[in-house]
Amino acid sequence: MEHRPTVLIVEDSRTQAMQLQNRLIDYDICVLVAYDGLEGLRMANEHLPDVIVLDMKLPKMDGVQVCQRLKRGAQTAQIPVFMLSSADDSENTMAGLNAGAEDYIPKDIFAANYLLDTLRSLGVLPPG
To answer: Is the pTM here over 0.85, yes or no?
Structure first.
């Protein structure tokens, strides 16, 4: 049985999570969604996704704290984490990168396209 890539989206805005999810489903990717930091951490440890897309500002535990815990975890340390951040939120963006995130995705109208390009560069999606 062929491995089906899994992406975990941790985003408290149901609208933004759904927009990203809808774009990824077209590519036969398993998409998991968590709506707060603690749920995201639990789901990451339970499902070990190929990629995690993590919002900076989350209820219960913020994105920086979640990223730090993921990067310290024996099972989750190698999972690429991409932070979702407002374009004008450079302080939080740097905090996320310092916590171990591979990169950040600006929260704008191009966020889904940026995510798709990133997944292609990681080999999670086929080129093109």
So the answer is: yes
